[in-house]
Write a structure and sequence with these properties.
The complex is a heterodimer of chains A (505) and B (205). Chain A is built from 8 helices and 11 strands. In chain A, the strands form 3 sheets. In chain A, strands 6-8-9-11-10 form a 5-stranded mixed beta sheet. A 4-stranded antiparallel beta sheet of chain A has the order 2-1-4-3, covered by helices on one side. A two-stranded antiparallel sheet of chain A has the order 5-7. The radius of gyration of chain A is 64 Å and the shape is rod-shaped. With 205 residues, chain B is of the alpha+beta class. Chain B has one domain. Helix content of chain B is 26%, strand content 40%. In chain B, the strands form 2 sheets. In chain B, strands 3, 4, 5, 6, 8, 9 and 10 form a 7-stranded antiparallel beta sheet that branches. A 3-stranded antiparallel beta sheet of chain B has the order 1-2-7. In chain B, strand 1 and strand 2 form a beta hairpin. In chain B, helix 4 packs antiparallel against helix 5. Chain B is globular. The relative contact order of chain B is 0.20. The N terminus of chain B is likely disordered.
């Protein structure tokens, strides 16, 4: 796997997602295990209580039935005794009615003809269809309804057989059934819980995978732009390291750290490009300076002997022949003029070749520019240069004389262009501050530069008497001071030269 | 040892003694396979307590006829019994349904009850069956006493869906969980498994 930033970021995201997930998984496992113990314990407790309740109730019910049976037996004996003195059926009926009324739970009392000992007769259940017909019978209809609990007692008497039916309330039994059914249902619910509990993991894992998948998609969408920017930054860096300084990154719409990084990267590459241009220019200028120095040396040395030789020729030339004398005068005059021009050229070469070392000092910009404009107006005429903007309290560090020389060169060029265009407008000098730079703009309404780039090349001039060294010299001085100089066509007409010099903090 | 502890063993002993007269576990009646099997595993104190609890006990029998080798199920049938002990009258009402036919009876004694609920008597597998002479057959019975009812499963589903105290999300989760509450959730108060002896197809009477 390639160890890219994006792969590490994704790995970190996966770790950040999976680690808490596995922790949650472990936690859930232990919680569910504890819960299972609780449920299991509850289930066992429930079943134990159900057994106890069942046994207690069955015992109670058995006792209750025994009690009712005993009461029925007692009633049988009582009835037999009361019937001993009764001789008519009506009187016997009265006895039965009386007993029924005085026995609240008696549902039926019936007299049958005696058939001897009970064990030989096999009494039939009162609810069976084929039952013997009673001699006398009283009943309480409200206690004969189905649903009530009944105990039938058959008493084999000497004169009559007696059947006594007692009723008991089914409420206790129904309540027990409700209770026991509730216990059983609770047990089943717990079994269902245990049955569906295994699906908790399925649901949990599916939900976990879905969350991880969605998190991955969201993270991927979020990181896509970031990683793309980082990748393009890396490829741009590579391009810069290979020498391509034209590469630029597209600015991000969001003002985040990456946007700042891109902005700084673009500024850095721009600065590198400018530095490279500056270095190349200075190298080229250095070569030109060397040429100028050699040319100045080679030309300057023979000029004085030439002048002396011509002077001697002029002094010792025969004057007899007027035509010849005139020819000599003219020739000497031409040689003197050309030597003078050559002298000027040599001086210019010398100025270019022998720029003095920088004497760095603090320069108060306000005072410096006022002095510069004053000097320019003294040199080229009052009102030729006007000062417009002037920042207060700004200082720069540099060689005062060299910077003044550079700016005078630029002003001279501007004044020349203005005069060439016969414009009445003065050259304007406007100064201000942009970031950490002092910016001086020199605007003229002259004929305009033919090629703003070419004007800074040595020996390029459009002036008849120009050397083509003024602006290159100005540029070299400005570049030597970590500044920059740019010429461009002005908005209406003329040119605008912008000089940027680093200001002191 | 208490006499109460010995009682079930004695009951099993007496009951299995009676099985001497029982027919073979598998036989052919025409083209139908008939099983006769004592489900002795059911005769436990716990089962008796349950039968005497006074509640209606539902007993589900899954009867499978398997063949060897392979253990493939070649026939299957269900039997369903409701047994209610009348706590006052102390007798049992038994109602058994097999393949659509219902048989009801009342018994007063526990051994009588066992004859009906703890045995398969002339239990006929549905459909025509042709046994293979070279294969062995046996009956496997799974008995569930009070299996979880469909009604209770539906009730639990409803509880899960209608979360009264939980949030709306709990309700959704409950609905999701209720999807898993289905027939596959098995459970019963008691589960027994009984297998008969294996009988060669050629030896089937």
């Amino acid at each position: 796997m390639k160890h890219t930033i994006s792969s590490r970021v994704y790995l970190a995201l996966l770790m950040a997602t999976f680690f808490p997930s596995f922790l949650a998984l472990g936690l859930l496992y232990h919680l569910l295990s504890a819960h299972d113990d609780l449920v299991q314990g509850h289930l066992q407790n429930l079943m134990r209580r159900k057994t106890a309740v069942t046994e207690s109730f069955l015992s109670l019910l058995h006792e209750k039935k025994s009690l009712v049976q005993a009461r029925a037996q007692l009633l049988g004996f009582q009835l037999e005794r009361r019937l001993e003195g009764v001789s008519t059926p009506d009187a016997a009926m009265d006895v039965l009615r009386d007993m029924l009324e005085n026995t609240e739970d008696a549902a039926e009392i019936a007299l049958f003809q005696t058939h001897g000992p009970a064990r030989d007769r096999g009494w039939l259940d009162p609810w069976e269809t084929a039952r013997p017909v009673p001699l006398l019978r009283v009943e309480r209809a409200s206690l004969l309804k189905p649903g009530l609990l009944h105990v039938t007692h058959h008493h084999a008497g000497k004169r009559h057989d007696i059947r006594i039916l007692l009723a008991a309330s089914p409420d206790d039994m129904n309540n027990y059934r409700e209770l026991a059914a509730g216990y059983e249902e609770s047990g089943h619910v717990l079994q269902i819980y245990q049955g569906i509990r295994k699906y908790y993991w399925t649901i949990f894992f599916v939900a976990l995978l879905a969350i991880v998948f969605v998190s991955y998609l969201v993270s991927h969408a979020v990181l896509k732009s970031v990683t793309r920017t980082i990748r393009s930054l890396a490829s741009s860096m590579r391009a810069v390291s290979e020498g391509n300084l034209d590469v630029r990154l597209e600015n991000r719409p969001k003002a985040d750290e990456l946007a700042a990084l891109i902005r700084d990267f673009n500024a850095m590459v721009q600065e590198l490009a400018l530095s490279r241009k500056r270095i190349r220019y200075l190298e080229r200028m250095g070569a030109w300076q060397e040429v100028a120095r050699r040319l100045a040396h080679e030309i300057k040395n023979p000029l004085t002997p030439i002048l002396l030789a011509v002077q001697q020729i002029h002094e010792k030339a025969p004057r007899e022949n007027p035509k010849y004398a005139k020819l000599v005068d003219t020739a000497v005059q031409m040689v003197r003029e050309e030597v003078t021009d050559l002298q000027k050229l040599v001086d210019a070469f010398g100025a270019l070749a022998r720029l003095p070392d920088k004497q760095v000092q603090e320069i108060p910009v306000e005072e410096f520019l006022r002095e510069l404009v004053q000097l320019a107006n003294l040199t080229w005429g009052e009102g030729m240069v006007v000062l417009q903007g002037l920042p207060a309290g700004i200082r720069i560090r540099g060689d005062r004389m060299l910077i003044k020389r550079a700016m005078l060169n630029v002003l001279e060029n501007a004044i020349h262009a203005t005069r060439q265009a016969a414009s009445a407008d003065p050259v304007r000098l406007d100064a201000g501050v942009e970031g950490r730079f002092l910016v001086v703009r020199i605007l003229d309404s002259g004929v305009g530069a033919c090629d703003p780039e070419q004007v800074f090349e040595p020996y390029f001039t459009t002036k008849i008497d120009g050397t083509g060294l003024g602006l290159p010299l100005a540029k070299k001085i400005i570049l030597d001071h970590e500044g920059d100089i740019v010429m461009e066509a002005a908005r209406d007409h003329g040119t605008k030269v912008t000089i940027r010099l680093p200001r002191m903090a | 040892m208490k006499p109460g502890v010995l009682a079930p063993f004695l009951l099993v002993f007496l009951w299995t003694g009676a099985s001497q007269a029982q027919p073979a576990p598998l036989r052919m009646d025409g083209r139908q396979m008939v099983a006769n099997l004592k489900l002795s595993a059911m005769i436990t104190p716990a089962f008796e307590r349950k039968m005497r609890s006074g509640l209606t006990q539902r007993i589900l029998y899954r009867v499978l006829l398997r063949e060897d080798p392979g253990g493939r199920v070649v026939a299957a049938a269900l039997r369903y019994c409701n047994v209610t002990f009348d706590l006052w009258e102390e007798n049992w009402s038994v109602e058994c349904a097999v393949q659509g036919s219902v048989r009801s009876l009342v018994v007063a004694r526990y051994p009588q009850l066992l004859i009906h609920v703890a045995a398969l008597q002339d239990f006929r597998f549905p459909g025509v069956f042709q046994p293979s002479a070279g294969r062995r057959y046996w009956v496997e019975v799974e008995i569930q006493v009070n299996p979880i009812s469909r009604q209770l499963l539906d009730k639990v589903k409803m509880w899960l869906r209608q979360s009264e105290r939980g949030s709306q999300f709990s309700g959704y989760m409950g609905s999701v969980l209720s999807l898993f509450v289905d027939k596959s959730i098995s459970g019963a108060d008691m589960v027994f498994r009984v297998e008969s002896k294996k009988v060669w197809g050629r030896e089937l009477p």
